[in-house]
Amino acid sequence: MARGLVRKISLTGLVLVSLLLLNISPALASTQSDIENSLICPACFAEAMSVAACQDSTAQQIKEEIRQKLASGQTKEQIIKTYVDQYGEKILTNPPKKGFNLMAWIIPFLGIVMGGALIYLALGRWVKVPSAKKGRLKTKSGVLDDYYNARVEEEFKKYL
Amino acid sequence: MSSIGTIGLLIALGLSLYSLVAFYLFNSNKGLKYLLSAKNAVYGTALFTTISVVAMLYALIAGDFSIEYVTQYTSQDLPIIYKLSALWAGNAGSLLFWAWILVLLAAVVTASKENKEFIPYASPIMMVVSVFFLFMINFVSQPFIQLSNVPLDGMGMNPMLQNPGMVIHPVTLYLGYVGFTVPFSFAMAALIMKNPGDQWIKLTRKWTLISWLFLTLGNLFGAQWAYVELGWGGYWAWDPVENASLMPWLTASAFLHSVMVQERKNMLRIWNMVLIIVTFGLTLFGTFLVRSGVVASVHAFGSSSLGAYFLIFTSLIILAALYLVADRINMLRQGNQFESYISKESSFLLNNLLLVGSAFSIFWGTVFPIVSEAVVGKKIAVGIPYFNQVNAPIGLAFTLLMGICPLIAWRKANFENIAKNFMWPWIIAIIGLLVIVFIGGITKPYALIAYTICVFVISSTLQDILKGVRVRKKLTGENLLVSLIRLLSKNRRRYGGYLIHMGIVMMIIGITGSNVFNSEAIKTFKPGETAVVGGYTISFKGLQQTTRDNMEVVYADLSVINNNNDMGNLQVEKVFYSKSEQPMTEPAIISTFKEDLYVLLTGWEENGSAIFKIHINPQIKWLWTGGWVIVVGVMFALWPGKGSGVGSRYIGRGEVSYGKRVS
Questions:
Q1: Phi and psi for B658 in degrees, rounded to 5?
Q2: What confidence tier does A114 reach under pLDDT thresholds 50, 70, 90?
Q3: What are the residues whose beta carbons fall under 8 Å from the beta carbon of B65, sequence distance 6 or more?
Q4: What is the pLDDT of residues B349-400, one digit of tens each?
Q5: How far apart are the first and last CA of chain B?
Q6: How far does the CA of residue B219 sit from the closest CA of chain A (Å)?
Q7: Which of the 8 DSSP states describes residue B637?
Q8: Do A95 and B230 touch (CB under 8 A)?
Q9: CB contact under 8 A, B519 and A23
Q10: In this predicted model, what pLDDT tens digit does every residue of B206-253 receive, in sequence order?
Q11: CB atoms within 10 A of CB B605
Q12: ipTM given for this complex
């Protein structure tokens, strides 16, 4: 039983992580806003504001450029690449998932896994009762149980 | 006014320094008179800071443009409410405001009767922080600098800040930030006094919970402001400053849970110390981020030397605190034991892991541009998609725990029981899933997982309440309603917590809906045209123009019909402020629990046609409503009187001692 649950939990965890790797990002309405969201407005590097969010004239201009490029049949990847070639990777709201940038994604989950391991080890030190380690309670029913149950109920009523 | 303010701040700084000396003398057994003197110095600091704040407010309202700050952030035609809120619109003013809340809190804590023995140690720690802030506004970022050439009018306030949200958001956020100084100071006092018990936690519980509430509200009001004012259809952009206020919220949430283990079982004493130190450190770290210009941020106040001061002070106080913990570590070591791998205690550890893990991932993403530049010399930005990708799975796992953990017993639990307890909630969650898929027609995996988890959490919480009612009914013979009311009102701490959880679930529903199902369209309307967008029948009559206070407004009235229901009129505006180059696009919103219709006027043409950007943002109202549910939950748990006490204590093996029921 215990094993089964642990397996279930780790399976759920795996599903969640694989979803992450499949990169199911929140659905975006259209390619237009998809591109607007993945580029930083070149006038706003200090604020790191995306073209979609930015209100100023440079952003308006880029939105128009994207519209025209899309209308002329360019794909999302082509359009984004044009801007990356022009301004460098810093124009992307999300760094490309390669090289050192991968550390951005790996480190947080590594931290959580290590934290989990730490908790597991700590519990191993703190839990002193050997029978409890297996996650089961061995209870034997006995004559005294009825007596204790009655006592507990009595005590309990005082707190209602 | 300027000289009153300047002198007031100088005296306040002097008094706060004196109070430190006097507390020190009292603590080295030099006599009671020094304690009284120190306390008076604390009150004096609060008084003189208040005088300076009043002087500043007076100058802002009266439009005393001889003061640089007043000139920079206000103008004559600014509505009075924004003249007041200009106090926290700029660097120097917001630090003054922060210092003011801090010294007022210090005075309240010092005057309180219920924590007498802690005062000689906790109070000076609050004063150390106060000294830092008073030093900053006296010498580094002075609010009362005078101009040699007095202008006739000021430069006016940034139009984006002229919104009710910006009046209330900074206040709530600062109250939250500053509030955590209290539990931090008491924790440090407990260490200094070698009092390792949970007294400091009990004494500061109200402060902690209320600060947490304000931090929650501060974040929500900020999000709401962004939503109704910035006009990009969203409410959270994972900007470093937003992250800076979310991180302490996460660690504080972890702290709220893990202190329960200490209260009940006298364990996790070191961890709780570390958590409150980290939370306090993060409240200052946020300020460092905003004022230093080290990371790109929308909220940047401009790079200045302020950041360096904050970094140094924060590092020093955190190092000192950690040193204290290390020095007293033997005293904090726990004597108690866990009795099982699976228990409420251990489930709190899991909760803490995810909350702190989420805070860490946000921290890492926020500083990653700096790390990347330092390590590989490449400038990059880390934006919305990254934070969503990393935090969505953590958030969902965390929500799931919210349904499981409250139902696990203290001390010992076993899988058989847990499985039995959760049978019904799982069944209901699966039915919910089927309903969502087949009737709701939703197939997006993230949404399915999120909604199923939410249904599970709600049903497992309700089941637990129902179980309690049933037991109570059996034991007392009361009817259903009476036993429900009595059950809830006699364990307000527990059920207040449940209510807060329900608020969080509502927020998760809102966040899921608005992120997964949002859609947008751009549509040009000719005058008199009617069109259907996203199921709404929208009629455009024509553009109009009007003058209001300090602005020129171009607006369109749109009438909206949905499913034959008249949804009323939307007034969509483009606002030209007298003091600002860029016009502001003010969205108009029709909000229901199903979705928000969010319309922006993006432009117009010669022939009177207008171009609108129309967002459909599902379920956002759940997010804001969840916030109010949390307010009610906190009030319910904290309201003084019967039922707000801690449950039984479990110390030692096998014995249960019922803690003092606080009445």
A1: -75, 120
A2: very high
A3: B71, B147, B150, B151, B152, B153, B154
A4: 999 999 999 999 999 999 898 899 889 888 888 888 899 999 999 999 999 9
A5: 49
A6: 19
A7: H
A8: no
A9: no
A10: 999 999 999 999 999 999 999 998 888 889 989 888 899 999 999 999
A11: 10
A12: 0.82
Assess A100–B contact: CB distance below 8 Å, yes or no. Answer: yes
User: In the block, which residue shows the tokens 């409240």?
Assistant: B283
Instruction: Yes or no: say if B279 and B248 are a contact pair by the CB < 8 Å rule.
Output: yes
Query: Residues near B123 by Cβ (< 8 Å), separated by ≥ 6?
Result: B19, B23, B38, B39, B42, B106, B109, B110, B185
Does residue B243 contact residue B285 with C-beta atoms inside 8 Å?
no
For the cut 80, the answer to whether the pLDDT of residue B57 exceeds it is yes
**Mean pLDDT for the stretch of residues B116-130:** 94
- Per DSSP, what are the bridge partners of residue A50? A40
Domain boundaries, chain B: 1-157, 519-618
CB contact under 8 A, A127 and B231: no
pLDDT in tens, B311-341: 899 999 999 999 999 999 888 886 667 777 7
**Torsion angle (degrees, nearest 10) of CA B86, B87, B88, B91:** 100
Q: What share of chain A is helix, strand, coil (3-state, %, to 5)?
A: 70, 5, 30
According to DSSP, the residues that pair with B523 across neighbouring strands are B612
How many Cβ pairs within 8 Å bridge chains A and B?
A: 199
Q: Which helix (H) or strand (E) holds B92?
A: helix B91-111
SS3 call for B107: helix
Chain B contact for A110, CB < 8 A?
no
- What is the model's pLDDT at position B69? 93
In whole angstroms, what is the distance from residue B37 CA to residue B123 CA?
13
